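Structure tokens please, single chain.
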Amino acid sequence: MTILNFKSIILDIDYERRFNHITKKMKKVDVFNLIDRYYYNNSVAKNILLEHSHMVCAKAIEIASHNSHLDLNLELIEQGAMLHDIGIFKTNAPDIGCYGKAAYVCHGYLGGQLLRHEGLNQLAEFCENHTGVGLSKDMITTQQIPIPTNDYLPNTHEQIIVCIADKFFSKNPKTLGQEKNMEQIIRLIERHNVNDSLKFRNWLKTYHIISKE
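Here you go.
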């Protein structure tokens, strides 16, 4: 996979101005300042992270808008969506400009550790609990995922909504910003775990998410 053409397109974009309409409520946490501390300006990894997180944020707010009866914390959803993937730079994923040492599957846990170090425990859970439809102790043990054995499962409406929204967008430079349809997502999840695909289907019903096709 090449990133050269993609890199030339995305460099020098003013992301903070572009995302201002979505992030205007973010008063407690300056997500852009936080990201700036861990990512080089105009790096491929940073631009991919911001583009992907923006799409996830917009999708999560869209889902939340259909669930006003749940009295959701929209600010928390916005911040969690913008920071859920902050740990990717610690992983070995050169196709998205990340040259760390950890396996990519660890990025959620690593991002959670980073945010806990920043004193952001509530937001850390958005990182830790968004991989797939969540990672259980059994999955971690069976698949030998190199993170501490624990349940990393979304456990609030806000976390579940961000987890769902994340599934609609890849960080692959070739498809960045392209929204997947629900059947594509379900097939991808089903390849790894049939029970997880059933869980995702139930989430779609619970949160009134319908296909746009």
